[in-house]
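User: I've been trying to design a sequence by hand for this structure and keep getting stuck. Would you show me what you'd pick, starting by listing the structure so we're on the same page?

Assistant: Good idea, let's start from the same input. This is the structure you sent:
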């Protein structure tokens, strides 16, 4: 795996321990309720203990989470990392210095564990000690490493705490400009999915705060929840961006959409705006303009940094457990300093973003969703089980996937060849963007559906059903068979499938198979797949009366064909003039063989584009095709 691949996997792994923090924030928020009035005076103490416990054990959670994330959820690696943390903590705890494990230590032990797991999980030892070989060797070597690291930390202990506090002082000396740089870099790294590498340093390491019992907590986030009035500088400024600025971009995209596409775009981007406002999940909106106007994304990153600078200079301090959305804002407001100022700041910058993006979209003719057919970010949550096989095909099939994980907004893949990935097909299937990091490392942004998509793809791979995948036989627009202006095809009397309205006069094969029938008038062709499906491709409606005029076949009956191979050329204008309709059905004539169907969205497609239709075959009790 190359460096970028390692970094993107590490970034995703650092997010795993974060999923427990909302619970801590809720416990601490609930502890402020008047429990004595409810006859439960001890409840605040219990809730505070529950909340602070998660922060106290955060280093262990990071060790476990990073080890699991970097090894593809290898349980032995996760347990080895925990064992290493127990050993390390015990050694430093028994020293004469007041040392405590930090998040950085946990992440490091988790990462080192993943390296040891990759190197030694298949190690073979002499037969008489092979019991300690293979995966059992990993916790053994991690234990020795943790012991060594703990002893080393004890030896250099006098400098550790002072160094962490001094680091916080150095960062704080940068003032508003330092916070501005943090905000700018954080947004830029979102593009590569590496923003967690920067945020976690500031949120969990920089700066120290001494609690009433003499113990220390480090990092902007734990210090904020521990009651440090100076904490929250690296979190507060994100609230106006996520609660107001990004939703404003969504509204600008909606209002600049074409009138005929505006209803669909409104549904999609209102949902994205609400997700950003409530939970701080911003990628679905950001990736809607990132690839078509990267310079606009740089402007957005600069403005995000400016917002953080302003909130810092105004003395606003606020924090969050998950992300800077309205839910975290309300839950944690009781710990904030001048947190109410974030709302008017957000409204002002929301208006700036809205008018700036509307002007830029119109002035530079930026093809944001809704400005053209085939817009990204479709709304299709209930359709995920049916589209997952199509997404799998667009990625290059299960044979191309070496590793597959999902974080909050994107699939993170390691593929054998990223050349097999059909970017246009993935965008048709709902992807906001495809990021190639080199070395086979690819990220596909599906928004908050990413984890559901990964689960359904896993199911599709494990089931290993007899499935036939169809590519687009032409460039144009895919339509439901019911829209074909012919009662025979629309009524599915010939067979079930889809249809296409061509933009170019070329018909290509949608599947692997054999040409079993080429009509004398060359307007239609039949292909039989290796699985025994008979596929009919019929160019236009009532085109048999043209008696072959305007059609040229480049294959013959008996030829073997593969997806994307040219079958027939036709004169598009001549066929339009001489036929009832250009609608070109692609139907399976023996559709009784099919158990279930999956269709991509009915929108623009390219010739040979993967993943327009997928069918699962019925299980046959015996035998196969006799032909």
């Amino acid at each position: 795996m190359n460096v970028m691949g390692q970094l993107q996997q590490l970034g995703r792994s650092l997010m795993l321990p974060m999923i427990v923090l909302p619970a801590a924030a809720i416990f601490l928020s609930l502890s402020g309720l008047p429990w004595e009035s409810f006859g439960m005076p001890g409840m605040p103490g219990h809730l505070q203990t529950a909340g602070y416990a998660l922060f106290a054990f955060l280093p262990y959670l990071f060790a476990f989470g990073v080890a699991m994330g970097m090894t593809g959820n290898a349980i032995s690696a996760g347990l080895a990392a925990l064992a290493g943390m127990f050993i390390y903590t015990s050694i430093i705890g028994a020293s004469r210095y007041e040392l405590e494990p930090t998040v950085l230590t946990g992440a490091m032990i988790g990462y080192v564990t993943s390296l040891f797991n990759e190197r030694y999980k298949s190690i073979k030892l002499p037969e008489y000690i092979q019991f300690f070989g293979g995966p059992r060797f990993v916790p053994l070597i991690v234990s020795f490493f943790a012991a060594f690291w703990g002893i080393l930390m004890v030896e250099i202990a006098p400098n550790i705490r002072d160094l962490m506090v001094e680091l916080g002082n150095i960062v704080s000396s940068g003032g508003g400009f330092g916070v501005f740089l943090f905000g700018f870099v954080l947004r830029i790294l979102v593009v590569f999915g590496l923003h967690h590498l920067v945020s976690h340093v500031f949120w969990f390491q920089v700066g120290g705060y001494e609690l009433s019992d003499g113990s220390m907590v480090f990092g902007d986030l734990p210090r904020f929840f521990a009651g440090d009035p100076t904490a929250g500088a690296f979190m507060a400024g994100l609230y106006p961006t996520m609660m107001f600025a990004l939703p404003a971009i969504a509204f600008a995209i909606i209002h600049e959409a074409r009138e005929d596409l505006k209803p669909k775009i409104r549904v999609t981007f209102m949902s994205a705006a609400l997700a950003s406002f409530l939970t701080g999940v911003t990628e679905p909106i950001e990736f809607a303009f990132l690839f078509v106007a990267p310079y606009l994304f740089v402007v957005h990153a600069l403005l995000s940094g400016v917002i953080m600078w302003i909130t810092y200079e105004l003395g606003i301090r606020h924090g969050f457990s998950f992300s800077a959305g309205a839910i975290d804002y309300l839950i944690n407001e009781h710990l904030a300093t001048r947190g109410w100022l974030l709302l008017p700041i957000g409204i002002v910058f929301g208006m700036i973003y809205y008018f700036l993006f509307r002007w830029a979209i119109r002035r530079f003719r930026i093809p944001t969703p809704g400005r053209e057919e085939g817009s990204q970010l479709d709304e299709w949550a209930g359709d995920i089980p049916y589209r997952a096989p199509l997404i799998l095909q667009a990625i290059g099939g299960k044979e191309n996937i070496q590793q597959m994980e999902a974080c909050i907004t994107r699939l993170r893949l390691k593929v054998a060849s990223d050349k097999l990935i059909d970017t246009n097909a993935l965008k048709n299937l709902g992807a906001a963007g495809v990021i190639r990091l080199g070395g086979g490392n690819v990220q596909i942004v599906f928004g908050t559906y990413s984890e559901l998509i990964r689960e359904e793809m896993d199911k599709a791979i494990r089931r290993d059903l007899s499935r036939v995948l169809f590519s687009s036989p032409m460039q144009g627009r895919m339509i439901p068979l019911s829209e074909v202006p012919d009662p025979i095809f629309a009524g599915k009397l010939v067979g079930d499938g889809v249809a296409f309205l061509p933009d170019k006069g070329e018909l290509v094969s949608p599947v692997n198979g054999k040409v079993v029938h080429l009509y004398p008038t060359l307007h239609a062709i039949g292909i039989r797949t290796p699985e025994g499906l008979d596929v009919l491709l019929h160019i236009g409606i009532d085109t048999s009366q043209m008696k072959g005029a305007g059609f040229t076949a480049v294959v013959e009956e008996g030829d073997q064909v593969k997806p994307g191979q040219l079958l027939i050329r036709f004169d598009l204008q001549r066929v339009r003039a001489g036929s009832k309709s250009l609608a070109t059905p692609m139907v399976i004539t023996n559709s009784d063989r099919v158990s279930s169907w999956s269709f991509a969205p009915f929108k623009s497609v390219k010739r040979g584009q993967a993943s327009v239709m997928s069918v699962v075959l019925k299980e046959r009790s015996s035998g196969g095709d006799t032909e």
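That's my pick for every position. To get oriented when you compare it with your attempt: Confidence is low (pLDDT under 50) at residues 373-379, 621-627. The longest strand covers residues 496-502.
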